[in-house]
Write a structure and sequence with these properties.
about 20% helix, five-stranded mixed beta sheet, about 120 residues, 8 strands
């Protein structure tokens, strides 16, 4: 898995430990902002770590691409703009929205494009 993109080896190992048979990791990105720890992208699903629970509890949420109804990029600059320091992905599943904020446009665009590719 040398071609896997990741920010934090511990987060990558956490995703690796929960893979299904035949599942391959594409990327694991550290998230910024309240609540979210990281997002993992595999060839089968999106995996989000949510640290917003009381105490030291957290949730790992798996979202099969087939359940994603939309994916949005939210930023304070235009999609075609040259620079912005962070971006947010909003993944809509049914009536629930999952928001994950990243440092830099490259991560935001990559997550958007991977989800769009597999959800289509």
């Amino acid at each position: 898995m040398s071609d896997v993109i990741f920010d934090n080896k511990g987060q990558l190992q956490q995703i690796q430990s929960g893979l299904l048979e035949g599942e391959q990791i594409i990327a694991v990105y550290d998230a910024i902002g309240a609540g979210t720890g990281f997002i993992g992208l595999t060839n089968r699903r999106v995996i989000i770590q949510d640290k917003s629970f009381v105490g030291k509890r957290f949730a790992i949420t798996s979202i099969p691409y087939s359940k994603v109804s939309s994916v949005s990029v939210v930023s304070n600059k235009s999609w075609a703009g040259e620079f912005f320091s962070s971006g947010t992905i909003v993944i809509t599943v049914g009536t629930h929205q999952h928001e994950v904020e990243f440092r830099g446009v490259e991560k935001t665009q990559h997550v958007h494009n991977v989800i769009l590719h597999y959800a289509s």
